[in-house]
Amino acid sequence: GETVANGIMRRLPNTLLLMGVSAIVSIVFGILLGVISAYKRGGIIDTGLVTSSLTTYSVPIFFIGWLVIFLFAVQLDWFPSGGTFPRAWGRNPPSNPLEILFGRLSCIVLPGFTLFLFSVGGWILLTRACVLENITEDYVVTARAKGLKQRTVLYKHILKNASLPLITSVALTFGFLISGAIITETLYNFDGMGLLIFGSLNPPDLPVLQAVFYVIALCVIIANFVADLLYGIVDPRIRYG
């Protein structure tokens, strides 16, 4: 008895909040740690970051979610084990905006942390590989010979020239943002787009699936277009090519 548009719009804010926060935190921490790992290549920090990144990126996300729920929800009882809203609210949510905010955040922490653990390793490895391709270039040697600070060389010279693959990955990440996280949202019973897609598969609800995939494809096309524009801003050689 609900239209497809209403079903999507009711769940879309939940997914944007969950996926947006986890994606931004993962990208920021992944890029920063990836640059540090590349700069400290071959050392203990680099080995630890690469090993932990490969481990979290290779472990199935539902297993990470189970461990997070067991530790923080069952053993420590710090956060709820699932749901979009605190169960104590029932059908009568509080009227205090701060109470609503903290209640919503308490339900986002565990699924967001699960997505962060699963995705940050990929950003660390990608950033490390991009930086290592440029760290021995002539312009880097020249910048160091000028006496520039190492932080300036890393983030203003190396990272800027190594950022094109990162821009592509960031754009696609945000393009697929509204698709949700099917496994994570199902595991935490989080009422978002991922749970909507999962619920529409069995029994098949073709109008919902067609609408969702159409919107996802449109967002990916827009994200690719934005990435192409950013290429010209970051690298003038592309703009004038």
Summarize the structure.
The chain is mainly α and 241 residues long. 76% of the residues lie in helices and 0% in strands.
Describe it.
The chain is 76% helix and 0% strand. The chain is mostly helical. Helix 1 runs parallel beside helix 10 (206-234), helix 2 (44-58) packs across helix 4 and helix 5 packs antiparallel against helix 6 (150-161).
Structural class: mainly alpha
The coarse silhouette is: globular
Mind summarizing the main beta sheet? none
Strand content: under 5%
Helices and strands, with pairings:
Layout: H1 4-39, H2 44-58, H3 61-75, H4 97-134, H5 138-145, H6 150-161, H7 164-175, H8 182-187, H9 193-199, H10 206-234, H11 236-239
List keywords for this structure.
241 residues, mainly alpha, 11 helices, 0% strand
